[in-house]
Specification:
By secondary structure, the protein is an alpha+beta fold. It is built from ten helices and eight strands.
Length: 231
């Protein structure tokens, strides 16, 4: 056999080996997604909530979601609609896609990490504001950290905003003391979107995770002194 023929056989063999590995991985990923959907659908049915796969235009409602997830394109797997303490919420599972230029390669096609996102309505519309843990991440890189004057809070949270005066008006005790003391808050990225309050954490959507974040954001909604922001 000619050298060219041998090279072609080697390429074909490598392709078949990669395909044999990739197909089971994709099957497992699909099964994992279907399993999560089944668990969430059952949870929603038992608790009078709605669960689905429709597209609720998340990027338009939460413009910072793409930057936080780290890609201009996100996949939205499904969402849960519910109400907690008279506050409506939506919980989503989103994923970052593989780089488009390598979308068919084995090495990166399996790297699509999930994130859990929760939205609750913001009672008073206003400027965007982002809180993130004080560590280098997509949420903080190349973004100025605005200190609000509470030393413990400034040590724990990175605050991103184009309106520092608004940040300092909102982020003051007792709200800052509560945020620092709540481990759910210190583990999440919290965003005041123009019309929504949003929390984002890495990991797939689960009943416990969804309700924990919904509870956190409902607490935040009740604790922010909204009336003072309109005076």
């Amino acid at each position: 056999m000619s050298p060219g023929g041998i090279a072609l056989l080697l390429v074909l063999a490598a392709f078949l080996v990669a395909l044999a590995i990739l197909i089971p991985i994709r099957v497992r990923k699909r099964q994992k997604l279907e399993g999560t959907a089944a668990v969430m659908a059952d949870f929603a049915a038992r608790n009078g909530m709605r669960f689905g796969r429709s597209e609720p235009n998340l990027p338009a409602r939460a413009p910072s979601i793409n930057d936080i997830v780290g890609d201009p394109l996100i996949y939205l797997d499904f969402h849960l609609d519910g109400t907690l303490r008279d506050v409506p919420f939506q919980a989503f599972q989103v994923r970052r896609p593989p780089p488009r230029q390598h979308a068919i390669t084995f090495e990166v096609s399996t790297r699509t990490p999930e994130y859990t996102v929760v939205l609750v309505p913001r009672p008073v519309a206003g400027p965007p504001l982002r809180l993130a843990p004080q560590r280098l991440s997509w949420a903080t890189v190349l973004r100025r950290d605005t200190e609000v004057g509470d030393p413990r809070f400034d040590e724990v949270f990175h605050v991103s905003t184009d309106t520092p005066d608004f940040a300092r008006l909102v982020l003051r005790p007792p709200l800052t003391s509560w945020l620092v003391s709540d481990p759910r808050a210190t583990a999440a990225i919290i965003v005041f979107e123009p019309a929504e309050l949003m929390a984002v954490v890495p990991g797939p959507l689960t009943p416990d995770g969804a309700m924990s974040l919904a509870d956190l954001m409902t607490d935040l909604r009740h604790r922010v002194p909204w009336q003072s922001l309109t005076s």
